[in-house]
Write a structure and sequence with these properties.
By secondary structure, the protein is of the alpha+beta class. The chain contains 6 helices and 11 strands. α1 packs antiparallel against α2 and α5 packs across α6. The chain is elongated and about 115 Å long.
Length: about 260
């Protein structure tokens, strides 16, 4: 037994020497021994972080969850000084959301803290992050679409974003691992309507105003058959159209003395 765990001293010593010869950190070696003792092949984790680029078809799952994920948002305010009231604040909309976190890309899979065994190499992951950071500055490739950030868990983040800052470094004693800090800013799509589309939409929404004519009060609500015949004759050239006028006004419920022409 080693430290109360079902691993012999020989196993622990062998794992330690083998890990050190490969340049593994003590944290990785201890994690592997713990999983071996407990019979755990993979770590169950309900939090996953994904970055997806729909334009290039590149997907990146963070192999190690960040220790802390910071979500920052704010509200734009405008302060107005009103006579006899003093200063008043008015909201002018929400600021763009920012998500920032730090973690590392491991060179080796360790089930105690890795979320997936299907990991890309640290160099490849670092290259992808750098490419996302500079994509809007490369007009030749035409990469203008944002990437998608998905973080499952309590905060449940799913938003289009761009990489606004990215910093990577290496730690002594952990060869191959690349540590990084990244900040992503929310991306909002703006739909711009052309002038021609605006004019077309305006014409579609226009409604023809009905024509109203006055009739003598003595002719009744609809002017009577004789009155409607005269109106139809005057406006349509055919007195027999008085029935369509009567039907339209029965549905409209106009007051006495006014007739709607269909």
């Amino acid at each position: 037994m080693f430290g109360g765990i079902g691993i012999s001293t020989y196993q622990a010593k062998t794992a330690l020497l083998d890990g050190l010869s490969k340049g593994s950190s003590l944290e990785k070696i201890a994690g592997g021994l713990l999983n071996e003792a407990l019979g755990i092949d993979t770590m169950v984790n309900t939090v996953f972080c994904f970055l997806s680029d729909q334009q290039t078809g590149t997907d990146l799952q963070l192999p190690v969850n960040p220790e802390k994920i910071t979500v920052k948002w704010g509200r734009k305010m405008e302060t107005v000084n009103i006579l006899n009231l003093g200063e008043l604040d008015f909201t002018t909309g929400d600021k763009l959301k920012e998500v920032s976190f730090s973690s590392f890309f491991p060179a080796e899979y360790v089930p105690t803290f890795c979320t997936t065994s299907n990991m890309v190499t640290p160099d490849s992951a670092n290259a992808v992050m750098n490419a996302w950071q500079s994509r809007f500055n490369d007009p030749v490739k035409g990469l203008k679409d944002p990437i998608q950030l998905i973080i499952t868990g309590a905060q449940d983040i799913n938003m289009n974003a761009i990489v606004t800052s990215y910093e990577s470094n290496e730690h002594g004693g952990e060869p191959g691992d690349i540590y990084y800090s990244v900040t992503l800013r929310e991306w909002r799509e703006i739909a711009v309507r052309k002038e021609s589309e605006e004019k077309t939409a305006s014409r579609v929404n226009l409604k023809v105003r009905p024509r109203l004519v006055k009739v003598p009060a003595s002719t009744g609500i609809f002017g009577g058959q004789e009155g409607l015949w005269k109106i139809a004759k005057q406006h349509y050239g055919d007195g027999e159209s008085w029935r369509s006028i009567a039907t339209a006004n029965l549905k409209s419920g106009l007051s006495s003395g006014t007739v709607r022409l269909p």
